[in-house]
Design brief:
Blueprint (H helix, E strand, L loop, with lengths): L5 H8 L13 E2 L11 H10 L8 H15 L6 E4 L1 H12 L5 E6 L5 H8 L5 E3 L9 H9 L4 E7 L11 H9 L5 E6 L15 H5 L5 E6 L12 E4 L2 H8 L10 H11 L2 H25 L10 E5 L4 H10 L2 E2 L10 E5 L3 H16 L4
Parallel strand pairs: 1-10, 3-4, 3-5, 5-6, 6-7
Antiparallel strand pairs: 2-8, 7-8, 9-11
Helix pairs in contact: 2-10, 3-10, 4-5, 11-13
Bound molecules: pyridoxal-5'-phosphate (PLP).
Pyridoxal-5'-phosphate binds next to helix 4.
């Protein structure tokens, strides 16, 4: 399965030796980041970027826009760089809040759609989930169809916290049907991890020329730049222009983020090693859950949603006492816990801890 030698991994990733977590350096299984950190090349590029940090980064910002366009298979006019995808999500939603607006989100979802609705004085319309916490597209369609005003639909695919994908045919057909006064913000923060061949990125609709959606992307996940805040919106140029009006006149990313992102976006080795390591580490986690008979959803991402069949809080507190931070509560799935996939050694440590918890009757 793993085609990369340890030496190559070491050269590309700068892998740190595992140390048992402590209160000062807890094991972070809570934010779905890339546990390796930035690639060696990206760190070097970021370091060099400081030399240029007294100058405006016009040209390099444009270079990153072009690189993102290549990555997506589109043109620079399809891209608007943003400070993390959070900013792309917010600006896209706000740009399309028309007359008498509603923001429609799955009830169990990453929170940006909901928080954007709230900051605009709207109560988000939370659509109950389908079986196994799936996104219920039929119910979402109903929520849009029955509403007289304009709708913005936000959903992440793959979904956070569930880690699963939404039926691409159903979702993409819905967008293609162009429901009246409806705009879609499709958050594909985790698309790079997906193995399921049935997944079709909503970017294909942008490429077909649809002007009723934006796809938001981030460098915070597989690209390991969460702290540098780099993301972008991908849409047809008319949509990009409309979304751009919701941000500062023309976003220039900080040069350190630009150079780190440029160093990684075309680095297939870093990308593939991150994907492979995630898969291997995730299997250690799911093997442990299988052994303990703990239910979980089939993950297409770098996190796994597990069914504790008990309240999250005591579990999270006991993990904290072991210096392990797990995901927060995601109502209404109050007995489920999201575990971010760490490195192989980190997952072995977590599996060992879970088995100790079982011995104590805690899970
Ligand atoms: C689904 C989803 N979208 C967006 C984000 C935010 O990412 P960014 O760091 O790009 O703002 C996250 C972060 O966890 C996420 O899970």
């Amino acid at each position: 399965m793993d085609q990369y030698s340890c030496v190559r991994k070491e050269e590309v990733m700068q892998i740190k030796t595992f140390e048992a977590p402590t209160a000062q350096k807890p094991l972070l299984l809570c934010f779905n980041e890339n546990p390796f950190g930035m690639s060696r090349k990206a760190k070097e590029a970021a370091g060099r970027a400081l030399e240029a940090a007294s100058r405006y980064p016009f040209i390099r910002n444009e270079a990153l826009r072009e690189a993102c366009a290549r990555f997506m298979g589109g043109k620079p006019e399809n891209i608007m760089m943003t400070y993390g995808s959070a900013e792309a999500i917010r600006a896209s939603i706000e740009a399309y809040l028309g007359e008498n607006p509603q923001v429609v989100v799955p009830e169990l979802s990453y929170s940006d759609g909901e928080s954007c609705a709230l900051r605009n004085g709207l109560t988000p319309v939370k659509v109950p989930m389908g079986p196994d916490w799936s996104v219920d597209i039929d119910a979402m369609m109903k929520a849009v169809d029955q509403f007289e005003g304009s709708s913005v639909v936000y959903l992440a695919n793959p979904s956070n916290p569930t880690s699963t994908i939404t039926d691409s045919v159903k979702l993409n057909d819905w967008i293609r049907s162009k429901p009246v006064n409806t705009f879609f913000v499709i958050d594909e923060a985790y698309a790079e991890f997906v193995d399921d061949p049935s997944f079709v990125s909503a970017k294909t609709l942008v490429d077909e020329g649809f002007d009723n959606l934006v796809v938001t992307k981030t460098f915070s996940k597989i690209f390991a730049l969460a702290g540098l805040r780099v993301g972008f919106a991908y849409a047809v140029p008319s949509v990009i222009e409309k979304v751009r009006r919701r941000v500062a006149y023309d976003i220039m990313m900080p040069i350190v983020g630009i150079e780190a992102a440029l160093a990684e976006i075309d680095d297939r080795e870093f990308f593939e090693i991150s994907r492979l390591e995630n898969r291997v580490a995730r299997k250690i986690l799911t093997d442990c859950l299988d052994e303990l008979g703990i239910e979980y959803l089939p993950s297409q991402t770098n996190f796994v949603f597990i069914n504790l069949k008990a309240a999250l809080e005591p579990f999270a507190e006991r993990m904290l006492a072991e210096h392990i931070l797990v995901g927060r509560a995601f109502p209404p799935a109050l007995e489920w816990c999201r575990i971010s996939v760490g490195t192989v050694d980190e997952m072995k440590w977590f599996a060992k801890t879970m088995k100790e918890f079982r011995a104590k009757g805690w899970v």
